[in-house]
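Ligand-bound model needed. iron/sulfur cluster.
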Amino acid sequence: MNSTAVRARTEAPVIEVFASIQGEGAYVGEPQTFLRLRGCPLRCNWCDTPGSWELGDGEMHARIDAVDAVRRESAWATPFKALCWVAQVESGPPRTLSITGGEPLMWPEFILGLRSLSGTRRVHLETAGAHPRALARVLGAVDHVSLDLKLPRDLDQPVPLEGTDFEASPRDEREWAAARAACLELVRGRDACAKLIVSGEHSARVFDPLVEDLARRAPNVPLYIQPVTPRGRSRAPSAELLNEIVERARELALVVRVIPQVHRSLGVQ
Ligand code: SF4
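Prediction:
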């Protein structure tokens, strides 16, 4: 086992810590503090944080957007060190802490450590919904889960992340369906939302299995449809496409909202 694997048990590589406005999902508009972790084995075509995928060979750095000055620190952090950075970027009372990535479920022990040191601060998790074992491990440690409903055809093959052998990533439609089902069963009845990113390449019917899975397995969890921010091979969906998916969700008695990435229109991180 190399040094990365050893450290991965208790520490996580941080990309950035900053205070901003939540731009997606059920808590859109809430002032939150964001802790972005490095490392993601998935390869979404429309990923807006591809710089978070790899751990890299050399020394990595975290950007700390502290109130007094922006600075860089060595990226690997214990939960205690990460929470010190969180406090340094906040100019007022503690905010909800949003753990994002990358894929934060690469670092379940780190998330458990954060919870144990966070006191009454709310802790939210943003995840791709591909790793149900890791999600089950941390579920009791977070107050809200924002769970992506991934369309397998929107992803290239996963690339295993060195040192994070906790759980393999789904590789095909069947494995994605199993991972999605397990994750939805886990968040059923909890404070959670499902996020469906819709790009213009597909017909509405392509999204049916995802919406139907949500209605079958976690009908209380609201669906947030997020039109993709065009990049790479992805283009924005039409109003007609969005409306068709909305109506399918409504037929299934889901609570559904359509919200673009609000932080982009606000011009914040
Ligand atoms: S799961 Fe998130 S970080 Fe990973 S490729 Fe997809 S959008 Fe990017």
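The two ends are 36 Å apart (CA to CA).
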